[in-house]
Each structure stands twice: as structure tokens, then as C-alpha cells.
Amino acid sequence: MENGVKVLIAEDEPHALMGLAELISAWGYRTETARDGIEAWDKALAWEPAIIVTDLKMPRLDGIGLLTRLAEDASGLNSNVAVVLLTAMGSIQLAVDAMKLGAYDFLQKPVDSTRLRNILANATRQRDTAIELEVARRRLRESGVLGAMVGSSKAMREIFGLIEQIAPSNVSVLITGESGTGKELVARTLHALSPRKARPFVAVNCAAIPETLIESELFGHEKGAFTGAAERRAGCFELATGGTLLLDEVGEMPNTTQAKLLRVLEERKLRRLGARTEQEVDVRVLAATNRDPGSAVEQGHLRADLFYRLNVFNIHMPAMRDHMEDLPAMTEAMVLEMNQKHGRRVSGLASSMLDRMMSYDWPGNARELRNTIERAVILCPDGAPLDAGHLPPGFGKSRPPLAPSSDAALVPVHVGTTVDEAERMLILRTLEATGQNKTRAAEILGVSLKTLHNKLKEYNRAGEEPLS
User: Fold this and answer.
1) Is 0.90 surpassed by the pTM of this model?
2) How far apart are CA 267 and CA 161, in angstroms?
3) What is the mean predicted confidence (pLDDT) over 413-440?
4) How far apart are the C-alpha atoms of 69 and 80, rounded to whole Å?
């Protein structure tokens, strides 16, 4: 019975070609033949077979050459085609080498018909599985899921499409968006969908590393390179070899380090601190920032040449308030995740809780949503749905800094006040208005959390007390 699977047979010996075609056709496959590698290549492009059975040695283009062309084909023909090589006694090593190039299997001549039939059946099953996975993946995309990312809004669908387009490449990507919007999740999804997925994913927060240590953290150091360097240490680039490195909050990196990073990106080589020689690096670099990159360049926080090098593609994650239609699906996915994480059996969300959540502006974005759901799942009895009573105390109350008419939102600055003093008053008043929530205060002030912490350390050293 015909199974409809197309098999292209390439063999320069006429009798062997005819015998293989008759045998494989008898097993129910649709067959096409070619007498050399060039003819096989042309027919493969036109006929699009699922399997190619090819002799290793042929005129004009041999089996290895045909396999190489298929592997390099920009149209993606080789993504599903299985190549089975037929080899003479003395060419087994060549066939083994061909497996490394992507051949599905090889058979020694004279062909064992039972083994050939099993190979074709296995290749067919593999092809069917690949098609099923692609169909499932397409359905997931249509339902608003890509990896661990959830969302069916227009903004999220566009992001999913861009991620799928650029994930297989090695290009740098700059991921932007407010704090908590899921920038690292985008980076992890890019890595998971790339050919580098089996290699390490390393994320480094540039804002959390002291300026004196960031070069060592990124590039590594030799023993004795500086005081305290008691042994050689690999940096993040080396730890991510063959994989992906995410530079989070790249705009907080010192300018001198940015210059060295640019050189590594352009030359694909780095030198550990204290080393005399350079070494090759094979790492895909992604970067993320919650700053507006254009403003960061204008203000000198981010080098223009580094920005252009990183910003080959830009993925901007929208704030939660800009795609609230995704919140029900996101919360559902988070409840499932938290059930598994904490061994709970929460049954979903009651309408009272969903209504409250939909009317909230989520200044902390997806991170705040995740923390809210995790807290609620822990509090909720097994088998019951989450309801409004599981929300944090004071959930959804307005924030004083957002009310311009409030006296608490005013900072008196008199003539003669220095810029530093005015800045101090603004920072401390904003902290007071946010209930000492440093993350929220940093967002309102338009500075990084690291900058805010540094300013507060300065005030503490000076013995200054918060404003009353």
C-alpha cells in the first residue's frame, strides 16, 4: 500500500538504480531516480523528497557533495530530508564522516534489503514526528505561547514572530523595556530556540557588579593580575562558550569596560586581565536595558558605537498596562507553574480576583504579577480558586507620587540651593512617598536602581537623615 512518502534514489549504475527503485516502490514509497549528484540536486529542489538514498561515489557530484549542498541550502530543504548513503567496502570511514555532516544513516553495498526497509521506516517516523512538533508549535503560537512566554495580543504576537525569525542566527539583540517586563525571559527564549540551546546560557547584571570587578567578571583574570587575585578565573564570556551571554542593564557598565566589550564583539577575541595572549570567543551576546537607549547614548551612559553593535535587532517588551488583554492567560500559566513549584492544587482564579487585577496598572509589570500570583497560590487552600482575599494588603491603592496636586509630591527648592542638595531632597522625598520602595522610587526618578543605591550610600556616609 502506498504511504505517499517521497524517496529520491541517486545511483550511477543503471541496474542498481532500477533495482532499488523497484524494491522501494514495492514497499509503498513514491520514488524518483537520478544518475548522478547534479541531477539528484536538481530533482531534490523541484520534487522535495522526504528521503534521499544516494550512492557515495558518483560522477559530477558525489554523495558527500550532495549532502553538503543540502546542508547549506538557504531554502531550508535539509530541515526535514533524511539522507541515506550507500557505500562500498573501502569507503566506510567516508560514510562515518558524512554522518557528522548530517546524514541520517548509511548502508554498505551490496544493500541488505531488510536493513534498508527499517531505515526508511525509521526515517519516515522521524519525519512525521518533526511535522507533528511543528504543527504543535504553530498551534502554540496561535494560542499565544512561545516557550515560557505567554500572550496573544498584537504586541506579543509581533514579538513572538521576531524571536522565531532571529533565534536561529548569531546576531546581537538589544532587549528594551521597563523593569519587570520579562527581558531576561526573551533572552532565554532566544537561546532555547537557537542552535546553541545545548550550550550554557549565562546572565550577568552589569548594574549589580562594582566597577572595580566588572572587567574581571566579564573577561576573567590570571593569578596575580590584581590584589586578591589568588588564582586564575574564567569570566562570563568563557563560561558561556558555545552558548549565549546576556548583559543585563548594559547601560550601567563603565565606559572603559564598554570600549573593551566593543573590541571583543568586533574581533571575537578577549584577553583575561593580566594575560599576555588573546583567546577566541564563540558566544552570542544579547543585551538588555530598562533605559531608553537613545537617551542613554545622548547622556553618555551608553557608547554610541556599542549601541549600534548591540542593536542589530531590537525587541521592546511592552509594559503590562499596554497589553492587559494578555493578563488572564499569563495568570493561568503562572498558577500552573506555581502549583508545580510549591506542590499545590489551586484551581484557577475567581472572577473577583481577576476583576481586581484587570483594574490595576501593574507598575512592577510581569515580575510584580508573578510575585502576586506566587503569594496567592501559597495562601490559597488546595482545590480552591484564588480570590480577592489572597491579594496583598492594600493591593491597587493609588500611589502618592502620581498625584501632582498632593503636597507630598512637592519638593521645595529655594534660590541658593545647590544642585546636589536639590537632588538629595528629591530622592529622599520620593522614597518617603513610595514607602521606601527603592525599585518604585528609581522608576519614578528615571534612574537605575544601582544609581539610587549609590546616592543613598553617599548620604549615609555623610550622616544625613531622611526628610521628615
Assistant:
1) no
2) 30
3) 78
4) 14
